[in-house]
Amino acid sequence: MKFEIASELAYEIHSPTTLLINIHALRSPGQTIIEETFNIEPYIRIEELTSIHYENRFIRLEVEEGTNLNISYKAIVDASHKIIDQRELEAVPVVALDGNVIPFLFPSRYCQSDKLSTLAYKEFGHISNVYEKVLAIVDWIYENVDYVSGSTNSQTSAYDTITERTGVCRDFAHLGIALCRALTIPARYFTGYSYKLNPPDFHACFEAYIGGQWLIFDATRLAPLNGLVKIANGRDAADASIASIFGRYTSNGITVSCRALDDNFVPFTHENAYHKAIAVNAI
Amino acid sequence: MKFEIASELAYEIHSPTTLLINIHALRSPGQTIIEETFNIEPYIRIEELTSIHYENRFIRLEVEEGTNLNISYKAIVDASHKIIDQRELEAVPVVALDGNVIPFLFPSRYCQSDKLSTLAYKEFGHISNVYEKVLAIVDWIYENVDYVSGSTNSQTSAYDTITERTGVCRDFAHLGIALCRALTIPARYFTGYSYKLNPPDFHACFEAYIGGQWLIFDATRLAPLNGLVKIANGRDAADASIASIFGRYTSNGITVSCRALDDNFVPFTHENAYHKAIAVNAI
Amino acid sequence: MKFEIASELAYEIHSPTTLLINIHALRSPGQTIIEETFNIEPYIRIEELTSIHYENRFIRLEVEEGTNLNISYKAIVDASHKIIDQRELEAVPVVALDGNVIPFLFPSRYCQSDKLSTLAYKEFGHISNVYEKVLAIVDWIYENVDYVSGSTNSQTSAYDTITERTGVCRDFAHLGIALCRALTIPARYFTGYSYKLNPPDFHACFEAYIGGQWLIFDATRLAPLNGLVKIANGRDAADASIASIFGRYTSNGITVSCRALDDNFVPFTHENAYHKAIAVNAI
Amino acid sequence: MKFEIASELAYEIHSPTTLLINIHALRSPGQTIIEETFNIEPYIRIEELTSIHYENRFIRLEVEEGTNLNISYKAIVDASHKIIDQRELEAVPVVALDGNVIPFLFPSRYCQSDKLSTLAYKEFGHISNVYEKVLAIVDWIYENVDYVSGSTNSQTSAYDTITERTGVCRDFAHLGIALCRALTIPARYFTGYSYKLNPPDFHACFEAYIGGQWLIFDATRLAPLNGLVKIANGRDAADASIASIFGRYTSNGITVSCRALDDNFVPFTHENAYHKAIAVNAI
């Protein structure tokens, strides 16, 4: 499925500032970038960083005090999604996990799985099938946490959300990840562009490692799971911020869009796809 | 400097259990393993995992219920340490940081630097030299936090320690890392064997990235900085646990030793080495 | 119902120390003290304090460094309990609450009801009858929180317990209070002697203000509700500690007992008393 | 000194709602109300509550859905202040404290003194004079916490502020109280009208019990200490909210004023009054 994605970030820069911008679609076997343009106004030399730690494409730029910075990105991306019969999926025991998956078992800044293990076992421990366990987690979050724009901030973590019961997509994702890890299911943060998200914005959800692959889950139910274009994965939002800014600045707004270029888009959600799991950007 | 290190871990295993054991000395340009032996009783097939994420050597093993497990490791290691005149050291701005260092700017499970930035700027922001800034952080921790065995647990984080003012080496390290990152100084967790640590145990401290290299700091002042043999680095203890155990078990004790094999050991500490910084396992 | 209660506290005192001891049975219209003795060894002048703030009888004593202090209390108490048909009980709206009940609507040190309101409304908001709402709260706590001796400490609060899901009687009481207050139901902490508590100890539970009276609830289900002899009420454990000690000391143990002096004790619990509520020390 | 104080609160009421309003000047031996008017528009019957728990005058009113409520208060108050030579002040040991003062030694919702004792002893334990100890606390808060309007909310507590280092008058007061109690100095919350506060608003600060009287301290340094008219005392803001509202509503703004009616007002602050302490509303 082809998507045309675009985003624009505007900042007023009040001191010499370095920005790490993470808005490019990821290049991966399951996601082909057909064309892309990245523009900075005024013109500033940029640098693309690739980390061995996580899947992402950071752009780094250095900006002078007094700059009115405008960053825009546009791309046409062919994002594959793989539909799997969930009845064939089994948990991968720790002993069989690939070494690169193991870090996603451990707690991270916003996903304090070590503090949630008793709760997770009490709520979800009785479900034997791993895929159904993760589905039960996302259903629980959907039913018990209110999606309220502006209710949380960049310091809010899963430990807060489990009690405060309000949040935005980022908080829903962190809570899902923390509960999975508390049950020894590897889970990682996902940021991306999302088709049919309303209002349009960057989106966050999470992937759980089941049956040897990363499957996508979204406890917000705000968008179809096959309408996602991946920007980055990470342990949590600390690894995959849209923008990390070292300096003083004012944000002048963000615009995001994601359009399907094919006519035959059939939305896939956990609600309409009984027994079916989905891996994004997978082949 | 050559060290003979050894450790022994004993567990009673009450359910089918997978263990990730992280007690091997790291292989690195600055640390040569002259000989090492690793034994499991009863005999169980083990597997060595190398992660692209962090510097460490995890051993994974799967153990049956009812096992009385004994894990022992012994090695002779030649650990180099590089002494640097701190007056030549300068902060590396974010724009010049290597991509693999950048993740160590971000908050992690036990090092919530995002919550400590106002405090860090108020306490240490006035110090212009980056090395002296980190030294001021470790001096502050030494003076303001009591080292009390058993006062904290595996959930204790820098955010707790900054207020509770008690902890063990792990907590001292986490607080140092969090304060550095809050000031945009990359910092990472360090675990290792430590010569002259009393009582003998695994040790934790931290490294800060200054002048293009990772320098070692230890706010506990419990051991000389040139008596360290590195096991692992990570963002914090979540990445570098001595043992991550998936299953039910009882611990039957840990013994650790670290002996210098050369006669000419001259202890290096920040207190006795004015103007001198030190990088462990560096050449 | 007559009970013979007794308790003994022993301390080694390492500095000049003031103790506030709160182990006397409360005098109230519903609880008559038939006889009581209070002994301190070595002999020290004591003083009984009555607070206008809360219902309790604090004993204050000042002890010299080096004292081996032994405090013992023994009493025969006639404790009335009033059984009420819960179908007649209605919520008292804030506008009709007595001024002295209103403080028990507000959050306190260990009962952060202000942080739990969304959660409380989501879990219990749909239950219209106020008595059934509180019963649902204590059932939820009983089912979702594990009673584990030694799992918590004097700093543990309802905000911790709602997530950590382990605790002792004090924590069960704090969580019950916090959830009631979050739903605008006045609730207060209760400490006392408890018949058939095993192992014998001081007990804590809570009272909710329903239908114009304080009814007793105990989410631990560890003892019959008509076997309670009241020591004190307060907003939470900060108001009703067994002992508040200002100085350095070592505790040498606590022994507590509570014996029914009548033969016809019929245990009352929420499980065996359908449609029945109970007010302790009430007439 | 005579002050003319006034305040006005406006609310849109969206459901049947009960309000507890705490804006009346307190009647006390040291504070005489010469005249006062209290108006509600539209006219609603009100009730004045006096609590035995705390010093305050709550007004309770019940309002129908759809009301545009306007509450206004105006008074002329003669507020005495007593200036004391601090060199004559001594700490009152726990053994000599009045029973009604003792509750102000214990932790409360927003003043978790039990979590701050190590920190408090490390920072202030070396100061032997109790008055100077409290002055050191307020100086420390003034120097280490930034006053930032809107930086905190109704859930923010002293435990947050000690680390986050930003807050408003309420947070400065809570932190002062918590640090005093951690050092066994009774301390209570104070709300009132404040002359020369800019911008005009209700003000919060705290009182510490020293030398047998409640002395006033204000770590914000925003207003003279002899320009305060007391509304209420309490353990913390949970006891002394300006408005506690049970129902759904929108706030349409608050206006507050405080004018000195005498010409000879000489501002008293800790900075300009060396060796002098002050008790507000005292004779």
SSE blueprint:
4 copies of one chain form a homotetramer.
Chain A lengths: L1 E12 L3 E5 L9 E11 L4 E4 L8 E6 L4 E12 L1 E5 L31 H8 L5 H15 L1 E2 L10 H7 L1 E2 L1 H14 L4 E8 L8 E8 L2 E5 L10 E7 L8 E4 L2 E12 L15 E5 L3
Parallel strand pairs in A: 8-9
Antiparallel strand pairs in A: 1-6, 1-15, 2-5, 2-14, 3-6, 4-5, 7-16, 10-11, 10-13, 11-12
Question: How would you characterize this protein structure?
Answer:
Chains A, B, C, D: This is Transglutaminase family protein. Chains A, B, C, D: InterPro entries: Bact_transglu_N_2, Papain-like_cys_pep_sf, Transglutaminase-like. 4 copies of one chain form a homotetramer. Chain A is α+β, with helices and mostly antiparallel strands. Chain A has 2 domains: 2-79, Immunoglobulin-like; 81-238 and 265-280, C8orf32 fold, CATH 3.10.620. The first copy, chain A, is built from 4 helices and 16 strands. Chain A has helices at 117-124, 130-144, 158-164, 169-182; strands at residues 2-13, 17-21, 31-41, 46-49, 58-63, 68-79, 81-85, 146-147, 166-167, 187-194, 203-210, 213-217, 228-234, 243-246, 249-260, 276-280. In chain A, the strands form 5 sheets. The first copy, chain A, has a 4-stranded antiparallel β-sheet with strand order 3-6-1-15, with no helix packed on it. The radius of gyration of chain A is 19 Å and the shape is globular. The mean pLDDT of chain A is 94. The A-C interface holds A 115-116, 118-119, 122, 144, 146, 159, 162-166 and C 115-116, 118-119, 122, 144, 146, 159, 162-166.
